[in-house]
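We emphasize that the prediction below concerns an isolated chain of 240 residues; any contacts that depend on oligomerization or on bound cofactors are therefore not represented. The input was used exactly as deposited, without trimming of termini.
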Amino acid sequence: MLGSSRNWQTAGRDLASSNHVFALDARNHGQSPHDDAMTYDAMATDTLAWLDAQGLSRVTLMGHSMGGKTAMLLACRHPERVAQLIVVDIGPKDYHWGSRPAEFDAMNALDVASLKSRTEAEKFMEGSVKDWVMRKFFATNLERLDDGRWRWVINLPALTAAIHTLEKNQLGPDDQFLGPTQFVIGAKSAYTSPEDHALIRRHFPSVQIDTLASSGHNPHMEVRDEFVTITQSFLSTARG
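Result of the prediction step, given as a C-alpha cell string:
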C-alpha cells in the first residue's frame, strides 16, 4: 500500500540476473489505472488478466505487504498459475489500524493545490508521521505536473475508503496453496510475529520461513543484498 514498482527497481534488477522479472503497480498505485473498487479479489483479478495478456501461464509470484496479501489469495484460488510463491513481511490474518491511520489523515489534509515541493509536503507530515523515512516514502506518491502544480499519483480517496477492507484477512479457513512457498520476514517489523508461523503453515504447508534480523517492513530496500540472496536460494532449491 502506497508503494509502487519504482520501489522495486534495484531489487528487481538484482533478481533479474537469473530470472525474467516483471514489476507491477497495483490498481490505484503508480502508473496503473484508478478505480473505486479496492479489494484483494479485484487486485488478484487484475494480476491474472495481466498474466493472460502477457501469455504467462505459470509464474513465480512475489508480493510485499498489500501485494503479499494479493499474491497469497491468487495462489490459493488459482494454484495452477503459480509455480512458487514468495510473500514479503505480511501474514494471512486481520490487521487493526484504528479508525484511520495517521499517515492517511496527513495526506488527506495536505493542500496539494498550494504545494511547492516534496520537501514542503514532508515537513507538513512531521506532526503525524514521526519516521522521516516513511514521510519520504509517502511523498514519492506526489508528482509534479508540467505547469508546476502537484498531484497525488495514488487514488487517495479510494485507498482511504478501502482501509477497513484491506486490513482484513483475505483468506478463508480452507484456502491453501500446496506449492513451494517462502515467507521473508523482517525481525524489526510489527507486521508478523513467531505466533503467526502456525497460521502461515496451515495455509501454506510447503513453506520456508526466513527471518532477516536487521530488517523492518521493507527488506527489499533495507537489506537488499541479503533479501536477494535468500530469495534466489529459495528459488534455486524450489526449482530443483
